[in-house]
């Protein structure tokens, strides 16, 4: 049995956008508790999580975007002792507080560390239980709970540092990974396949995507078996043709039928099936190499059960 890495860091708990916000620190508690309770955690190799550096982040993002976040962060830190604002509101759903950038840099650092460990052969694959999520963060802006695009940082690291020539991104969140598409659109080294509810936030992914983008928009209330059929018919031939040397997964579990942030009807068995199909492609073409990053998933029980199912497949449990 191979080794599956688990990358998380307590800094990822410190980002908190306020009471009642669905993207909350308790998401990581739910995942950790579930993996410990079920014994899955015992089968995983915990990895160290560094802070992503500015050069690592700016392979995927505009320098001005990160500098703007840094400036906002410094202002929040300076103002807070004087009773100043605790949050800088970036969009209606996304707020920066004094620990947000620290957490985001850890989340991106997990992508770097997991990529290094998997490419070196120290691990077969890895799951990163990190927040804030990343797949809505565009080249030049934060949005949709996301500040830094963790997957994009990892993919660019695999290509530009490790020299990989073909990397696939699989995104199965209820929301379209518009930020990831923004960063990689037209890059022939990257194939991105995604499935998401449409029409739905961020109202993108259907308007003439580039040839390296395979988007599957599905209507509200689509069930798991229909999603499986689409993946089998559309994703799998493209992934086989592309022959990726590594696969990165934007693992969003808000397409679960119990998650109130979306209206898709998947369950944990569907997520396990999707993960198994990804693993089959990775075994054939990529030496099994997969790095999976947590994206959405806001019903804590459904999130915990779905992550358990996903990680069990990665770890051959």
Description:
The chain has helices spanning 11-14, 26-37, 54-57, 63-79, 100-120, 150-160, 178-184, 224-242, 268-285, 300-314; strands spanning 4-7, 44-47, 88-91, 94-96, 125-128, 167-171, 190-197, 213-218, 246-251, 290-294. The protein has 317 residues and is α/β, with parallel strands linked by helices. The strands form 2 sheets. An 8-stranded parallel beta sheet has the order 2-1-5-10-9-6-7-8, sandwiched between helices. Helix 5 runs parallel beside helix 6 and helix 8 runs parallel beside helix 9 (268-285). The longest helix is centred in the middle third of the chain and has 21 residues, at 100-120. It is globular, with a radius of gyration of 18 Å. The model has no long low-confidence stretch (mean pLDDT 97).
Descriptive labels:
single chain, 317 residues, alpha/beta, two-stranded antiparallel sheet, 10 helices, 10 strands, 40% helix, globular
Please provide a brief summary of the model.
With 317 residues, this protein is α/β, with parallel strands linked by helices. Helices cover 40% and strands 15% of the residues.
What is the N-to-C order of secondary-structure elements (H for helix, E for strand)? Answer: EHHEHHEEHEHEHEEHEHEH
Question: Which residues sit in consecutive blocks of at least 5 with pLDDT less than 50?
Answer: none
Strand residues, percent: 15-25%
Radius of gyration, in angstroms, nearest whole number: 18 Å
User: So what's the overall shape?
Assistant: globular
Would you count the extended β strands for me? Answer: 10
The number of helices is 10
Largest sheet: 8 strands, parallel
Q: Could you report the average pLDDT, rounded to the nearest whole number?
A: 97
Proportion of helical residues? 40-55%
> What strand line-up does the widest sheet have?
2-1-5-10-9-6-7-8
Q: Helix/strand/pairing class, anyone?
A: alpha/beta
N→C terminal distance: 9 Å
């Amino acid at each position: 049995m191979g080794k599956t890495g688990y990358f998380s860091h307590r800094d990822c708990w410190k980002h908190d956008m306020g009471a009642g916000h669905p993207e909350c620190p308790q998401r990581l508690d739910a995942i950790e508790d579930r993996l410990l309770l079920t014994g899955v955690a015992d089968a995983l190799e915990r990895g160290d999580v560094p802070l992503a550096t500015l050069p690592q982040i700016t392979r995927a993002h505009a320098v001005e975007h990160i500098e703007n976040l840094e400036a906002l962060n410094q202002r929040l830190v300076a103002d807070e002792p004087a009773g100043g604002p605790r949050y800088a509101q970036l969009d209606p759903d996304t707020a920066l507080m004094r620990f947000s950038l620290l957490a985001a840099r850890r989340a991106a650092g997990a992508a770097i560390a997991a990529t290094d460990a998997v490419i070196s052969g120290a691990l077969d694959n890895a799951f990163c239980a990190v927040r804030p999520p990343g797949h809505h963060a565009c080249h030049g802006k934060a949005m949709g709970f996301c500040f830094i695009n963790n997957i994009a940082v990892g993919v660019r690291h695999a290509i530009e540092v490790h020299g990989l020539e073909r990397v696939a991104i699989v995104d199965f969140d209820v929301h379209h990974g518009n930020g990831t598409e923004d960063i990689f659109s037209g890059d022939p080294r990257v194939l991105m396949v995604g499935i998401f509810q449409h029409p739905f936030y961020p109202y993108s992914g259907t308007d003439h995507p580039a040839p390296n983008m395979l988007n599957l928009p599905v209507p509200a209330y689509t069930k798991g078996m229909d999603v499986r059929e689409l993946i089998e018919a559309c994703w799998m031939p493209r992934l086989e043709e592309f022959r990726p040397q590594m696969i990165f997964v934007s693992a969003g579990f808000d397409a679960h039928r119990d998650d109130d942030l979306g209206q898709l009807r998947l369950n944990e068995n569907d997520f396990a099936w999707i993960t198994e199909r990804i693993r089959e492609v990775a075994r054939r073409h990529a030496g099994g190499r997969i790095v999976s990053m947590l994206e959405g998933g806001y019903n804590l029980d459904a999130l915990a059960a779905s992550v358990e199912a996903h990680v069990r497949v990665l770890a051959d449990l």
